[in-house]
Predict the structure.
Amino acid sequence: MSTKTPVASLRRKNVVLDQKKIDRVKRIFGVATETEAIDRALDQAADLAAFRRELDLGFKELLGKGGFKDHSTGGAQLD
């Protein structure tokens, strides 16, 4: 969920990045500028981290209720 960044929080940065990664992200997001590509990628990384935290909490809750079978270990019962 990308949102427009307030101008007051924007800062100029001088970083060394892999140009191939920047070009790939520009294509993935269909954006024209490197700045927008990097901004979108950072937003997506933050969203992914939040999603993983939600998944972890959900799985912990399921495991806490018992009766969850972990099929990756041959169906061993997890309690």
Summary: The chain has a mean pLDDT of 86. The first helix runs from residue 19 to 29. The beta strands are 68-70, 76-78. The chain has two helices and two strands.
